[in-house]
Model the fold of this input.
Amino acid sequence: MSTRCIGEVAELLRGVTYGKNDTTDSTAPDALPLLRATNITETGLVLTDLVFIPARLAKPEQRVQKGDIVITMSSGSASVVGRSVLVDEPIDATFGAFCGVLRASDQVLDRYLSYMIRAPQVRQCWSDVARGTNINNLKREDVLQTAILVPPLVEQQRIVAKLDAIDANLWKLSERLDAELLQSTQLLVSVADELFAGASGTSTALGEVCHLATGGTPSTHNRSFYESGEIKWLRSGDVHMREIRDCEGRITAAGMVSANTKFLPLNSVLIALAGQGKTRGTVAMLRTQATCNQSVVSIMPQDVKFLIPEFVYWYLRSKYDEIRRLTGDDGKDRRGLNMRIIRGLEVPVPPMTEQERIVARLDEMQSVCAKVSANIERRKAKAGELHQSVLAAASRGAL
Done:
C-alpha cells in the first residue's frame, strides 16, 4: 500500500472572486448558483442562502461536476478550513474564491479521496497550516502536498464500501436521536398550548402593560468603541441561549454612548427582530446586565406584581410560529419584526397565582427536556467520535 501526495492523484481548482456587480437575480434565465464557504458544512452541501452569477462568467472547468470534492479554502475560523463535501449528485453551479475543488484522477476513487481528506489527521494538519490573523487560508500546495495512502482500486472499493456502511448506520442513529429530541420539544409545546388555552383573565397588548426597549450598533470603523470593551452587547443570535448570563459581544462606554444604547432591564424578556434561519421571533430571559443592538427588543412588565416576565417569556415562546407568520414566514418573505408588531402582540393576564403555577409547570417540563437533550447530545458526540476513529484507522490502512 503506497503513500502518495494528493497532487499526484488529483487536481485542485481554486474558486474565482466575483464582485457585487457580477451577481444576478435567481430568476434570471442564465442564473448560476455560486457555492461559497457557508454552503459547505460537516454534514453536506447546503444549497440555501445562495448567490447567483450570470452563467457566462464561469469558465467550463469552473462548473461543478459529479464526483468533485468541494473544499473550504479560506475562513475566519481555522476549524472550518478544510471542510469538504463530495458532490455525488449532478448540480449546475460554480464556486467562489473561498472554495476549491478536488478532481480525482483514474488512480483514485472520488469517494475514497473524499474519505481520506476528512480523516482527523488531515483536518488537523490543514487547520494548523491555515492559521492567519483575520482570514485563515489553506494554500494550494498545502492540499496538493498532503500525503495519503493510495492502495489499488480494488482495495479502495473495499474500504469505501465499509465506510459507506458505517456512515449509513450512523446516519440512521442521528435521525433516531433527532426524532427523540423533536418528540421532547413537541411535548413541551403541547403542554404550553394546553396551559395557555386554559388561562383565565383577559388579553391585552404588550405595549399596554410592558416597557419596550432596543439598542444600537456603534460604528465598526471606530476601534475604540470595541477594543478592550467590558460592556456586554447582545446580538440577535444570542437569544438561542434562552437564559442569557453572558455573551461574546463587548463594547466600550464610549461605544455605548455613540450608539445611544442603554442597559436593558434585568430579568426582561428579549425577542429577536431579525436573523437567519430560526432566529427571528426567538425569545430569551436576560439574567445579566447588558446592552443590545437594534435587532433585539427587551420586554419588561410595567408592574411585576401584575404580570411576571417569565410568564411573558413562556407565552411568546409558545407563540413562536404565529409570531413568525406575522412577517410572512413562507420561505420567500424574510421581513423582520418591528416595535409596532411587538407592541401589538396580545398576551393573557390571569391572576398572579395562576401565572406562577403555569411558569412553574413549564420550568419543570423544560428541566426534563434539557436532560433529554443533554443525553441525546452525549450520544451524538460518541457517534461522532466513533466516526472520526474509523476515518483515522482507514487513513492508516488499518480498516
About this structure: The longest helix spans residues 153-197. The two ends are 13 Å apart (CA to CA). The first strand starts at residue 2 and ends at 5.
